[in-house]
Amino acid sequence: MIKKEMIAMLLAGGQGSRLGVLTTRMAKPAVPFGGRYRIIDFPLSNCINSGIDTVGVLTQYQPLRLNTHIGIGIPWDLDRNIGGVTVLPPFERNVHSEWYTGTANAIYQNIEYMESYNPEYVLILSGDHIYKMDYEVMLDFHKANDAAVTIAAMPVPIEEAKRFGIVITDDEHRITEFEEKPEEPHGNLASMGIYIFTWKVLREALIANADQPNLDFGKHVIPYCHGKKERLFAYEYSSYWKDVGTLYSYWQANMELIDIIPEFNLYEEYWKIFTKCETLPPQFIAKGAFVEGSIIGEGSEIYGKIYNSVIGCDVFIGPNSIIRDSIIMNATRIGADCDLNKAIVAENAKIGKNVKLGIGDETENETDPEIYNHGLVTVAEHSVLPDNISIGKNSVVSGVFEAEDFEGGMLAPGKTLIKAGERR
Description:
With 424 residues, the protein is of the alpha/beta class. It is globular, with a radius of gyration of 23 Å.
């Protein structure tokens, strides 16, 4: 019988609605990050760097881009005869077929997959966080404490604590209280959504709670284990960890990569981040072009000026265009004489000549102010913007546009312009 000490289950089915038009056609873990990566590359790379060679990736929402990116796991050395990476979408059974309805429900529906490896421990991960973690060190902590469940946790500002599961621990890091998104938190040590379970404990908890609607780790499984007096411990993590769940936090995380001394370093030799790479020529910076404090992906041609921006692969930026504090994703084409400030331009967009993005005062977005804010302007993938238009801050556009779609050549700050058939 196959036996693995620890396998990983990577939850990658989330829609990521707070990323707005970036996740209209793809799951959040498939969103590009850092010029050449996708968000899911980080937990996958953590697994192989930690010596974990068996990973189940649970997909659901818009999985095509994610499935294509993962393939058979070659970039992460996860193309194994025994183990490796396996994509696990919901599937039809003889009885009780359903979509994944919660984080723990998704794991419960794949009990047979986990049992096939007869693991001693199961690592539960989210596919939408940016960080580097050696899960082997966390496993050593789990073993040393003879724990049933170990929860990775880190301090957060007390005013943000209500957004997280909060753990209260004693002097030995044993969890004495667990509150899922409490209105009045008793502490600020927040669960990161990274768990190690002793397999028999996880299996029992999943089966015992299988009938719970929207079965969830924070709401059901962890409280169940705590109520049974299992040994729950908090593994405190103190390095960089970013939940890129909002458009602004996503933009911030990209900008942090290009700090003079980046808090999150993509270039460490001993902890590489792996990804699926296209065969592209080197970057080309033309005579008269200028690049300062930026990341430029392979195959990109730069004829303009780039300041403090993250430019993806196979991007074209025309002469006299100026890009500041922006994220330009793969295969985008930007014409001459453009001026982009705090723009997020998704993949395969085409921007005409003399286009200005991010102008004017900040005005609250008219449809989704909780998504489109902080002065950002967002352009959805495959969008086409005509020549000689201006788009204000906190705006979002999605679709193939003509000049007449912009009255007076302008979209005012805070506006939403999404063509019929597109989604926010």
